[in-house]
UniProtKB/TrEMBL annotation:
Mannose-1-phosphate guanyltransferase C-terminal domain segment(s): 252-338
Species whose genome carries this gene: Streptomyces boncukensis
Domain Nucleotidyl transferase: 4-236
InterPro entries: GMPPB_C (IPR056729), Mannose-1P_guanyltransferase (IPR050486), NTP_transferase_dom (IPR005835), Nucleotide-diphossugar_trans (IPR029044)
Name this polypeptide is given: NDP-sugar synthase
Length: 360
């Protein structure tokens, strides 16, 4: 198995303001764009050709990754003129694939952080003689996800989208966002229109008698769709809880990139990241947070479980807890922002203007 499709076209609406200027897969996690971790793990699993299905801010990807040779990959880019959904995006890049009809093609969602053994998924697909195989994981509360029940042999029996009533929750297994398609199956997806693999492709294949196989994997898994989960995923990469060969340094309590400047008595803990050109002042305390490139944290600031955007400035003695501060924003001295508050890009909050706030 030598090639993969990466679905990186989403707008990342739930992650705003982090995605106002940056497509979701390019938002930094543990010091590098999140997509870097996915590409590195794919390469480690034996993939050498990746086609990126792009749409929103498509022009950002190729200047950063180029042809992929520095990663040991051959990268290609296909841009959707109009959003096509997951299935439509897969079909839209089919002409760039090199696999024969009976060979497997790996498909990744661009917003899932996982410890999945990719080779094991492909091997399970081959052993089961499946048409499509899905990575499944178990969650405590499956109501926000698509349920995928399987029989005793791992064969998928149904697809149930986001059940709400208790009687609809027939399994805790959910679609974890990584698939193996036989190349021939991709060609059966309708071309030139939006298609959802979850709501259309998989149910249609199942109704037609195709063999859809589910492999339940209990390793690390996190959907990075919200700012809180994205911050958590970045911290878990730094701490070594989530595996990636692309973390630019040793795993531990902190990751400080070479050009960052951190005062001697400042403390970064809980998997915090200080990106390129970041400045952290004396006495600052950063816990479980990501400071993106060029952010400035003044003396005495307290930042927990938060993300500070590129070039943003946080004033002296300001407290941030579960906050997201957009690119270029300025939060003045002595503010206190908690409970999931989001500060928009280039917004300015004067000194002492907010003592406590939360999303409502």
């Amino acid at each position: 198995m030598t090639e993969a499709i990466l679905l990186v076209g989403g707008k990342g609406t739930r992650l705003r303001p982090l995605t106002v200027h940056t497509p979701k897969p390019m938002v930094p996690a543990a010091g590098v764009p999140f997509l870097t971790h996915q590409l590195a793990r794919a390469r480690a699993a034996g993939v050498d050709h990746v086609v990126m299905a792009t749409s929103y801010l498509a022009e950002v990807f190729e200047p950063y990754f180029g042809d992929g040779s520095h990663l040991g990959l051959h990268l290609e880019y296909v841009t959707e003129e109009e959003p096509l959904g997951t299935g439509g995006a897969i079909r839209n890049v089919a002409a760039r694939l090199h696999s024969r009809p009976d060979e497997p093609v790996l498909v990744f969602n661009g917003d899932v952080l996982s410890g999945l053994d990719i080779r094991a998924l492909v091997d399970a697909h081959t052993a089961a003689c499946a048409d499509v195989s899905l990575h499944l994981t178990r969650v405590t509360d499956p109501r926000a996800f698509g349920l995928v029940p399987t029989d005793g042999g791992g064969r998928v029996t149904a697809f149930l989208e986001k059940p709400q009533a208790p009687e609809e929750i027939v399994t805790d297994q959910i679609n974890a966002g990584c698939y193996v398609f036989n190349r021939s199956v991709i060609d059966t997806i309708p071309a030139g229109r939006p298609v959802s693999v979850e709501r259309e492709t998989f149910p249609v294949l199942l109704a037609a008698g195709a063999h859809l196989h589910g492999m339940v994997d209990s390793t690390y898994w996190l959907d990075l769709g919200t700012p809180q989960s994205f911050v958590r995923g970045s911290a878990d990469l730094v701490l070594g809880r989530a595996p990636s060969p692309a973390v630019p340094g040793r795993c531990g309590e902190r990751l400080i990139l070479d050009t960052a400047e951190v005062a001697g008595d400042a403390k970064l803990t809980g998997g915090s990241v200080a990106g390129a050109g970041v400045a952290v002042g004396p006495g600052a305390r950063i816990d479980g947070s990501a400071l993106l490139d060029g952010a400035v944290i003044a003396s005495g600031a307290r930042i927990r479980d938060s993300m500070i955007g590129t070039g943003a400035r946080i004033g002296a003695d300001t407290v941030l807890d579960g906050a997201v501060v957009g690119d270029g924003a300025v939060v003045g001295d002595g503010n206190e922002l908690r409970g999931g508050i989001r500060v928009w890009c280039h917004a300015r909050i004067p000194a002492g203007a907010v003592r406590f706030s939360s999303d409502t």
